[in-house]
Amino acid sequence: MVLMMKIRYILSTLLLGVTLFSTLPAVAVETLVIYSGRSDKFVKPVIKEFTRETGIKVILHSGKSTALLNKLKLEGAVTTADLFLSNDAGNLQKGSDLGLFQPVSAALAAPIAANYRASDNSWIGLSARARVLVVNTEGEWANKLDSVFDLADPALKGKLGITNSTNGSYIAGVTVYMLAAGKEKTRQWLEGIKANAEGKVFNKHSKIVKAVAQGKKQVGLVNHYYIYRHLAKNPDAPIKIVLPDQGSDDIGVAWNVAGIAISKHSKKRAQAERLVAFLVSEAGQKMFAEMNMEYPTRDGIPAARQVPPAGSYKVADVPMAELGRQRDATLDLIEAVGMP
Questions:
Q1: Among 100, 199, 306, 312, which is disulfide-ready with 95 (CB 3.0 to 4.6 Å)?
Q2: Within a 13 Å sphere around the CA of 70, how many CA atoms are in the beta-carbon half?
Q3: CA angle 17-19-22, nearest 5°?
Q4: Interhelix angle 40-54/282-292, nearest 10 degrees
């Protein structure tokens, strides 16, 4: 009898514990939603480390930067996006001008040089890339090119690889050339490279690098890291990087930045700021450098050893915010020339 009473007591205690546990409120997992205009492979490793350190989960809604910016604009206050991530300063500044972002504090933005963020800190540049030439080292043009404007030489007809004119880096590069070298010179250059491309353009920079390596093209205009990624997999590929326009009277290399902004209507500002803080931290910036071979925008963080060090070559003196302010003028010029 005593034994039965003890068993009943133990069972009732266990049942009470289960009942109490089942009535406890579920612990909400903090989650951030990012509208991301970057390829997942460039973002996920850094996001994964942020989640590991903070416990905050991140959902990436990936797509084209311009399309996602338009989506953010149309959704307004009902958007689910907490942040907007773009591979192009032009789109970031455009979003800022449209009032789609909420600025971060000066202290949070401080590690990033003023040239790589909005003047009101409504977007922050995270990593930079250089527009360079990839040249076939076994072809006749191996040692003849030292300027982007050389690409308009009629002798390169059929030998030039460029992306389609909707590519964000392409548009940003044209903006830099227009501001640094003048609209008329840039228009003539566009007409020249249009003729040399012969209507054949590429949808990816990596395909341009591959075509040059295979000798199908002699030269291409690409972002620097695509060359080093190709060489990492194909160390004997007959290609090299040319940093263009390095003379005393030349404009220098065009740069662009990928960056991030907090949505104006995000209800999770504190968590969003934690993500921004991580991305501009030394740890976050080193990850961009080591994994993506991009240039960190935080001072003191070196690029990957394979990449020419920042400061070792001339960069065009064009603030990144201008890539947004002049975007419409650039698109008008591209359209007027009829670039494919």
A1: 100
A2: 5
A3: 105
A4: 150
Residues 120 and 264: their CA atoms lie apart, in Å, by 14
- The residue behind tokens 């072809």 is 139
Task: Quote the tokens at residue 5.
Answer: 């009473």
Confirm if 241 and 229 have CB atoms less than 8 A apart.
no
**SS3 letters for 220-244?**
EEEEHHHHHHHHHHCCCCCEEEECC
Q: For residue 32, how far is the Cα from the chain centroid?
A: 19
> Which 3 state secondary structure label does DSSP give 166?
coil
The DSSP symbol for 248 reads T
Q: What are phi and psi of 118, to 5 degrees?
A: -70, 150
183-192: pLDDT as tens digits? 999 999 999 9
What is the DSSP code string of 68-102? HHHHHHHHGGG---SEEEES-HHHHHHHHHTT-EE
Domains 31-127+257-310 and 129-254+329-337 share a fold: yes
Name the token pair of 286. Answer: 């080193």
**Which two structure tokens, joined as six digits, stand for 156?**
């390169």
Cβ distance 334 to 164 under 8 Å?
no
Domain boundaries, the chain: 31-127+257-310, 129-254+329-337
Long-range contacts formed by 286-289: CB under 8 A, 24+ apart: 287/45, 287/46, 287/49, 288/46, 288/126, 288/127, 289/127
- In the chain, pLDDT over 70 holds for what percent of residues? 91
Pairing state between β 160-161 and 219-223: parallel
pTM above 0.85, yes or no: yes
pLDDT band at 4 (very low <50, low <70, confident <90, very high): very low
Give me the CATH code for the 31-127+257-310 domain, please.
3.40.190.10
